[in-house]
Amino acid sequence: MTNEHKTEWKAVAARVTGILVILTGVLLAVRVCVASPPGDHPIPSIFEPHSTPAESIRHLSHFVLGITGLIFLVVFSLLSYVVVKFRNRVADSKREPAQVYGSTQIELAWTIIPILIVVVLFLATARVIHAIQDAPEPAEAVEVTAIGHQFWWEFRYPRFGIVTANELHVPVSDPAHPTPTFLKLLSADTDHSFWVPQLAGKTDLIPNHPNETWLDPHEMGLFLGQCAQYCGTQHAKMLLRVYVDTPEDFNSWVRAQQQPANQDEKQAAGRHVFETTACLNCHAIGGTNGTGRFGPDLTHLMSRHTLASGAAENTSENLRLWIEKPEAIKPGSLMPAMQLTDADSDALVRYLETLK
Amino acid sequence: MSSDAMAIRTAEASGKPWVETLHEWVTTVDHKRLGILYILYALVFLVIAGLEAIIIRIQLMRPHNDFVSPQVFNRMFTMHGTTMIFFVVIPVLFGFANYLVPLMIGSRDMAFPRLNAFSFWLTALGGFLLYFSFVGGSGLYGAGNAPDVGWWAYAPLTSRAFSPGHSSDYWTVALLVSGFGSIGTAINIIATIISMRCPGMTLSRMPLFAWLNLIMAGMVILAISPLTAAQVMLSVDRYLGGHFFDTQAGGSATLWMHFFWIFGHPEVYVLVIPAFAFASEIIPVFSRKPIFGYPVMVGATASIGFLSLSVWAHHMFTIGMNSYANSFFAITTFAVGVPTGIKIFNWLGTMWGGRIQFKTPMLFCIAFLFQFLIAGLTGIMLGTAPFNWQLSGSYFVVAHFHYVIVGGILFALFAAFYYWYPKITGRMFNETLGKLHFWLFLIGFHLTFDVMHFPGILGMPRRIYTYEPGRGWDTLNFLVTIGAFVQGIAILVFVVNLIVSYFRGAKAGNDPWDAWTLEWSTSSPPPTYNFASVPTVASRRPLWDRKHPEDPDSRYE
Amino acid sequence: MASLIFAESAIFTIFVVAYLFYVGKSLTGPTPREVLETPIFYTICLLSSSLTIHFASRSLERGNRAVFLGLWFLTIVLGGLFLFGTGQEWHRLIYEHGLTISTNLFGTTYYSLVGLHATHVTLGLLMLGIVLLFGLAGRVGREQSARVDVLAMYWHFVDAVWVVVFTVVYVLGR
Q: What CATH number did the domain enclosing C113 receive?
């Protein structure tokens, strides 16, 4: 084979490699989109929605992927054909091919068709934009105010009078009698973004610019997400956990959160540590002097599965580590190392562990 | 053959002190030398920013990795983005424009040679300032280092409260300074093209390269200024107690976003239009046919320029604009895809019926077509606002824009390097190394950026220094990192080729590719004065007319 | 120069947009209505300087150096008066009303926009001054009239920007 031929076939090989890579990619995508068992949603895929906004988006995305896929196939086939059919053959490399300067009809055709495609895409898109953004809030909706902080989430339920952090509980929504959750999104400092892919598209939390989003999960379980707008050093560990409960479980959770803080006399020493150190500048615990709002409300700390906005599991060791050396769990977070004595640390942790 | 390169070698042979050569280069106002300076400058920063990318990828290779701290990681992605856009792609494109535009229009130099030099040194100063931040960013508070606020520097993260120290100021000042340099070069390009074309070269007989750089320069004039204004406002906030973006005083964080993206979106078209220019010169030559539909190519690019000024908020679909605004920006984004698609068809039309030679520049152009097509299509996906609510801020977007910038622009740039290297240096590059570079880079590119779409689809946001295991992101990230290393090796092969061919490449002669625009009519490298006598042209392909006097283009235009 | 004017227009447009966006949004402090006084006299000075520079350029084209120099000098005086007026207004705003760039949104946007314009006037005056010096040294004749025209274009631009700033700040913004 001459060098010219080798190069030609190499170019063809390039095209084939391209197809294979794309195909592999598609297969990868299919593999990762396989449904997980119910109740367990460890993979936050946008193609596995369980709530109306996310489902509308997936539906629209199928349409868009179909159109773009078709365009790709057409153009790719043209490119492959051209590269193979019109490659220079040694025999006629001395003559120049016909010098064609353009063709009005062809150029008109490949202008008009894309414009039509654009119109169709736009109509489909505008419909979904309105459906999601302008959806009216029904009376039965659960209302949550989410406030973004560096680097944790504050959740307030104004109608229930409760405040919690990082782990959002919402009731499952029956399509026949929807009970969606409508969230008002605010920020206490920089920009953040609320993103739980399987429940809704993301919406930003911007200071001095209240936003709104909503979700109506159709399936129970834990859904994962995290902050999606760079907000500083620990943006990566501003994780979200959304617990979709049955209506009964949700109501019991609300009632539990509405209870005042557990007052265990045996832990008075620990409570004393909390009330006489800088802890209460940032944290609130119902029934104590602590009314700080810079950090999460700790009244029902033990009702949460994680600490530090999902950065660590809520265990005794982690709790102690978080208080003594936050750098070890979330370097750059705004929780300071509290410099307590061992005795004080012990007492404090034991006290905090009673805050169910 | 008289030439700068040859002059250097003979001078060295005859003992001209290197200080004198250095002085010549530092004080040059010759567009060819400034072009080379821009290109070399960009190559140095390409390697530096590439290393920053490698650091990012090593850190993300597996979950909960601790290769670098979060603080360092955040500086890495900020510097990588800022460097690549402002100190790699812009300078290298200005470098090629500087070198080639006067040659292609038959003029002796740019309209304002001293402004040209001034603009280059301003850009150079900007790059130096940005990197000085690693050392000097601490300021009074001992906090801060290199900027770590992302290359968009969103407010209020950049306010004094959240970015103490001077790191954000280095970002601001470096870009302000190089922005003035960019405006200077843009003014120069416009003035040169408008007033210095050789006799017979009407605007409609200009090479597409000149047309597209004219449009690019016009966009620079309109697009860089909003960034300059916004940066002045940011500095007023940070130093004079202003409240432009101070949300505590009623200021607006979204105002920064609007101003930034009014710059940011046209900016990426500024980056891609010269890449289109490269393709529009190289594909015809290696297909042995003229560009298909020259007037439409010009018109389409001009429309892209105009339309790109209306799409900026497609970077802001998630900030809570109302549904009418979101719909508006969705349709303008779709609309700008139409002229872009037309161009791809025109390139295909050029190749159709041709006799395609698969030399290295053409290989890169074919890959450019394939990859730019995909990049455009993922762009359409991102323009679909609701789909964008899932995909933005995730690795899908990172994959998309790297597909455009690396798969599109960088591939076209490599084509340009290989195509014009003989003209600039007088030597042919090594074709084997060139093909090795192509294949390695192609494989590495696809391994990294094809795979990268999927973590985004699976919910992985961008700008995170680590991630949780078990979300389906682990293996994908690992593969992406491997691809990055393969690309790094390919770049090394490229740099080696550049150097080796300079000393050992075959002599190129005036016109090694049998091409048709004016730069191939003079020697390689060209003499300082470019043309011994001012050329006259009668068509778009003056050298075709000379080589085929029996069938000149002028008969058909 | 046309390209430079486009670029500068884009910068001014952004500042004007910011000004208009924040009209009425200050949380505290003096409002435009309370403290602004319309600078009619100094505006007339600046706008007439466009006329004088126009006639100066025409005179130079005809080779009439003396008239050119006189009108050029007048342009500089008028421009200088405008700057003086701006300075006076700022002095009043700062010391009598306590309005600074950091007081509130109005202060920030006002001083930035008017200040940006005043900076361009100052730079213009510097360039006009250099030409005056060259002119007095006898170096500016009919052959330089094209270059003088380019500078005059810049000066007209600065005046046109003032028309916009004036409308936005003293008419619309109140």
A: 1.20.120.80
